[in-house]
Design brief:
- The structure holds 2 protein chains of 2 kinds.
- By secondary structure, chain A is an all-alpha fold.
- In chain A, 76% of the residues lie in helices and 3% in strands.
- Chain A starts with a helix and ends with a helix.
- Chain B has a two-stranded antiparallel sheet with strand order 1-4.
- Chain B is globular.
- The chains are: A mainly alpha, B mainly alpha.
Chain lengths: 491, 624
């Protein structure tokens, strides 16, 4: 019941905003969306605590069902999505969107939230796919209609690239899902996970796992299919960037865990070394690109590629530690990148561009709050212990060093070294940004410091980054049981 | 009782740091100051309580901190420990932290960012206390990295200065690069033990608690050596040993209280304590010990030479830190396995007192004379009731004159080297010779500093009368002076577990060296700065650390940046080219299709659709 509430409310409000409520004022739209997202958050909270399930027939002839539930893997992501859902709406309060009606903007935010929640709730592979795709359209609207007002061509390019690229990935995934469902004879994700791919020949398992991994890798994104991400982030409005980094990318890693890793462990074992190598390359690639990138938003986007590299590396190791690391790093990246995008997006609004070569007033001198938030965000991004980024990355390096027995040990150990080196690159680009933007003696041109709703959102995210860093225990405990089930089920 | 105290010793400064952030931006700094100093006093009291509490109980005690982490196969219990040694060193750190907080409250009284500074110092102290009391590799790593980050903030405190910004960046990046080794070392050690608890790591790697040697399938020595070499690399970085040493002198761009903290009792000395915890594992890793011995032997002599030729007395102290930390680490490289790490830890203890004293004294003096350059400080301590004796005692202790604390600990280190020679280890010779050379060089630069500060120029009583130092500052400096004088008595207490003793022959030799070097410098001086006479025109290159900075840039920074440019180029022109190419090909195909359609009858279009459907169906069947 609560699951349905948390899905129906945002969807219904979004639909009304798109149809009947197109003319409402910014305040009204925001109030409505806030109410909807808060109700959704309450519903998700309740669902995470009580763990209800929904199971209704959908297309009986195909055996498809509305099957929704919460477990240890989806719970943190559901919470993350619902909390950020409130966050982005709140963040919009003081900045009326440009490029379209405010009702459409809010509706898109709510639809993205709805689609993401449905993706994480879904316990049916086909339902998962449908929800996964549902997010694309509102996100595309956010990028092309409400994105960077300075450059219409860039908006069109970024939006088109985002949709076509990820839709291409989804096609591969769909083929993979259909093949999986056909071979296993069920589309129930729980049954698939319990079956663990028994009865499917290893060759087919590998092929299907490769299709699924390739499709989902686009969404994560894993090197070398990451090039849609930087333009999308650069042009998207701040709220869109936050959702993109903190929610959409998570759907990719979540899919990797649910589909190939849990359902086809043997096939995934064959794909994992390749995936791990790509993840490690991504860590270096993203880190290096950040060292010379001129646009601050693109820089944060490339750093996402590096961070997701750690997640993928942990996933591929095939151990419980690795999966725990990946799930933790996933959530941590969601919070940290959300914080960074709010700050960086705010800076771009104030500066008019996000070019790092332009001389500007040092944030430490003129906007201490934004400066502080940037320091916290970048420190977390470089994996400073005591902040969110550390645990996932450390455990991921550990997991790569001692992978599961069926993984090539030498290769994974080399990748562990690469991952550790990646943290130095993270430190280097974080300090590069701090040195150019945060520290300095210039106090002109003055910009306004963060306040009101923007500051509220930043403060909550800073607190979340601190909490995850100081007390990683609860989150790790939340995922522990399910992780043991998934890895334990592997033969 | 001691368990609670152990937790509070770490927790109190952490809370002070967090609360400090909240009050940091108030115009009135009294709240920030009260919080910082109050927490520091509390930490000292709790550390005292811990020392008393531990003294009653026997053996090591583990104390839980936050609940163990559910990290899959790896066990991360996250426990603290309370032993006599950890409690004693924690007390030392707390005392130095208190002195620094008190001093900073006066030194930075006009600084508009004092609040942030005080909060960072609290966090820094907490991180060091965590490293000292940690019984878990991960907790050590947490404290270790947090210290690095705090050092970045403290060194770059005056961020309006370009030199400070660069020094902060350099300090963090150099140590972070070395930390790759630390992290990997921790990972390998933990992977071998399946747990990050020190006890289990030492058990499984050093093979203790294994009665029958044949039954023990010990861990591979290659892996053991690899792990410890990596760990040692991390420690060399943080401690500023060659080849990572060049960040430390530049770190003098930070406010003096920060330098006192970083140099005296925390970051640079932390590695000694970490290795002391893992001494049984280190003792089994010959390769790592060789690396440590080589690097420390080179560093102690090299840094002492450079210290002598510095035109800035604060940088002289910075190089002396390098030299002294090399000395304490070298004890761990050569001490026989049975003797344990006591000598290194003792030097850590004594260095904390006299180095904090020297930095606070020179910081105090710099406020009254207006700078730390040797030329500015000429005759600066003359007639000053507090700074003069403080500086005198500090320099004597640094030089290792008996019976001050520096003498006691230095002789223990040299004795450890002697014992290592006795155990037939070649690297012990290296360390002993380098150590004796360092003794002479240290005496030389201490004498030089004293001549500059006291002999040259005349007393400026008016200036001393205008001294605004608070009672707190005077108390802090006095306490450190007293501890520097009587601290050596610790060897007759059971507070530190010392394996060795003072070797009288070496002691006699080093006293002769000290006296000889001191007299030689004095005779060279003849009314001028001895360094000017000896080093002369080469002083700028001494100040520049012999150009190692350029080496860092040329060997590391430039190649990495070149690679980064290559990556960006490849990202745009190769990886993304396929994507753009796909888009272009589709458009081309679309245009072609459109052309082909013109003037066609509908039936042929339908045929194409049917063909497409068949193709999709075939593909589907093939996959089914």
């Amino acid at each position: 019941m609560v699951i349905l509430v948390s899905l129906v409310v945002p969807a219904a409000v979004a639909v009304w905003l798109l149809t009947g409520g197109r003319g409402v004022s910014h305040r009204t739209a925001n109030l409505l969306a806030s109410a909807a997202s808060v109700v959704t958050l309450a519903g998700v909270l309740f669902a995470v605590i009580t763990r209800p399930t929904v199971d209704r027939a959908w297309v009986p002839s195909l055996g498809l069902r509305w099957q929704l539930a919460v477990d240890g893997i989806s719970a943190p992501l559901l919470l993350l999505t619902a909390i950020l859902g409130v966050g982005v709406v709140l963040h919009t309060l003081d900045r009326p969107p440009q490029g379209g009606t405010t009702a459409a903007f809010h509706a898109c935010l709510l639809l993205v939230e709805f689609g993401a929640l449905a993706t994480f709730y879904a316990r049916d592979a086909v339902l998962f796919f449908v929800a996964f795709e549902l997010v694309l359209v509102p996100m595309w609207v956010l990028i092309t209609r409400f994105g960077d007002p300075h450059d219409a061509a860039a908006r069109a390019d970024a939006g088109g690239r985002f949709v076509l690229y990820t839709a291409f990935g989804s096609t591969l995934m769909l083929v993979g899902i259909l093949a999986l469902v056909a071979k296993a004879g069920t589309s129930d994700l729980d049954v698939l996970a319990q079956g663990g791919g028994h009865g499917i020949p290893v060759g087919t398992q590998t092929l299907v796992a490769a299709l699924l991994v390739a499709g989902l890798a686009v969404k994560v994104p894993v090197f070398p299919v990451h090039t849609w991400l930087p333009p999308a982030h650069t042009t998207a409005p701040t709220a869109g960037s936050v959702l993109l980094a903190a929610v959409l990318l998570k759907m990719g890693t979540y899919g990797l865990v649910r589909l190939p890793l849990a359902s086809l462990p043997e096939g995934f074992a064959h794909v994992a070394p390749v995936l791990a190598v790509l993840g490690a390359v991504g860590i270096l690639w993203g880190g290096l690109a950040c060292l010379v990138e001129r646009d601050l938003k693109r820089l944060v986007a490339y750093s996402s590629v590096a961070h997701m590299g750690f997640v993928v590396l942990g996933l591929s190791s095939g151990t419980r530690t690795g999966l725990q690391a990946a799930l933790f790093a996933n959530v941590a990246h969601g919070v940290v990148s959300a914080l960074l995008f709010v700050v960086v997006g705010g800076l771009k609004e104030r500066w008019g561009s996000a070019d790092l070569e332009t001389a500007r007033a040092a944030l430490r001198e003129v906007t201490p709050r934004l400066g502080f938030a940037l320091v916290v965000g970048l420190a977390a991004s470089l994996g400073l212990p005591g902040l969110a980024g550390f645990w996932g990355e450390f455990l991921s390096v550990y997991a790569a060093w001692s992978p599961a027995a069926d993984r090539p040990e030498g290769l994974f150990r080399a990748l562990a070294v690469v991952g550790a080196l990646g943290t130095v690159l993270a430190a280097a680009y974080a300090l590069r940004v701090l040195r150019t933007v945060w520290a300095g003696e210039r106090t002109a041109p003055r910009i306004e410091d963060s306040r009101d709703s923007e500051w509220d959102v930043i403060a909550v995210l800073v607190l979340a980054v601190l909490l995850l860093g100081i007390a990683p225990g609860p989150l790790l405990a939340l995922t522990d049981d399910t992780v043991s089930t998934i890895i334990g089920a592997a033969p | 009782m001691s368990g609670t105290a152990t937790r509070l010793v770490v927790l109190v400064p952490v809370v002070a740091a967090l609360l400090g952030l909240l009050v940091a931006r108030r115009a009135d700094v009294r709240a920030a100051r009260l919080l910082a100093v109050g927490a520091a006093v509390l930490a000292v009291l709790f550390a005292l309580a811990e020392v008393v509490g531990v003294h009653g109980s026997s053996g090591a005690r583990t104390v839980s901190s936050i609940p163990a982490l559910a990290a899959g196969e790896l066990r991360i219990p996250l426990q603290l420990q309370a032993t006599t040694a950890t409690a004693t060193i924690a007390l030392v750190v707390a005392v130095v932290g208190w002195a620094v907080q008190v001093f900073a409250g006066w030194y930075l009284k006009d600084d508009d960012r004092y609040g942030i500074f005080a909060a960072t110092v609290s966090l820094f102290t907490a991180a060091m206390l965590l490293v000292v009391q940690s019984a878990d590799l991960v907790l050590t790593l947490v404290g270790w990295e947090v210290m690095g980050w705090c050092s970045y903030l403290l060194i770059g405190h005056w961020s309006r200065k370009e030199t400070a910004r660069r020094a902060a960046l350099k300090a963090f990046l150099v140590t972070r690069l070395a930390d790759v080794g630390f992290v990997l070392g921790v990972v390998i050690l933990a992977a071998g033990a399946g747990s990050t608890a020190y006890r289990r790591v030492v058990q499984s790697w050093a093979g203790t608690g294994c009665n029958d040697a044949g039954a023990c399938t010990g861990p591979s020595t290659t892996l053991l050596n690899a792990a410890m070499v990596l760990l040692v690399i991390g420690i060399l970085g943080k401690s500023g040993m060659v080849p990572f040493h060049d960040w430390l002198p530049d770190a003098m761009e930070g406010p003096t209280p920060a330098s006192a903290l970083i140099h005296a009792a925390t970051m640079v000395a932390a590695g000694t304590f970490v290795l002391a915890q893992l001494f049984d594992v280190l003792a089994a890793a010959d390769g790592a010990r060789w690396l440590l011995a080589l690097s420390t032997a080179v560093t102690m002599v090299y840094a002492a030479v450079l210290a002598f030729g510095q035109s800035d007395l604060k940088r002289l102290l910075a190089y002396s830190t390098l030299s002294q930390v090399a000395l304490m680490l070298s004890a761990l490289a050569v001490a026989p396995a049975d003797d344990g790490p006591g000598a290194g830890v003792l030097h850590l203890y004594s260095h904390a007192f006299f180095k904090a004293l020297l930095f606070l004294a020179i910081g105090w003096l710099s406020v009254t004379v207006g700078g730390t350059a040797a030329a500015t400080m000429r005759g600066g301590v003359r007639g000053h009731l507090f700074i003069r004796p403080a500086m005198f005692v500090g320099l004597l202790s640094l030089a290792g004159v008996p019976p001050l604390v520096g003498f006691v600990s230095k002789e223990h280190v040299l004795d450890a080297a002697e014992a290592g020679i006795g155990a037939g280890e070649a690297r012990a010779w290296l360390v002993l010779l380098a150590g004796l050379l360092t003794v002479a060089l240290t005496a030389a630069y201490c004498m030089r500093a004293w001549i500059v500060l006291d002999d040259l120029g005349s007393a400026d009583i008016e200036r001393h009368d205008a001294d605004t130092a608070t009672v707190g500052v005077r108390t802090a400096v006095t306490v450190l002076t007293v501890l520097t004088v009587v601290g050596g008595l610790v060897v007759v207490t059971p507070l530190l577990d010392l394996g060795g003793h003072i070797g009288w022959l070496v002691a006699l030799l080093s006293i002769l060296l000290i006296v000889g070097a001191g007299l030689a410098v004095r005779s060279v001086a003849a009314g001028k700065d001895p360094a000017v006479r000896v080093v002369g025109a080469r002083m700028p290159s001494f100040d520049a650390g012999l150009g190692v900075d350029r080496l860092y840039v040329a060997l590391v920074a430039r190649p990495v940046l070149a690679l980064a440019h290559l990556v960006v180029f490849l990202d745009r022109e190769v990886v993304d080219a396929y994507v753009r190419g796909a888009a272009a090909a589709t458009r081309f195909g679309g245009t072609g299709g459109q052309r082909a359609h013109r003037g066609e009858v509908a039936a042929s279009g339908l045929a194409w659709v049917v063909a497409g459907v068949v193709a999709v169906a075939l593909a589907g069947v093939a996959l089914w």
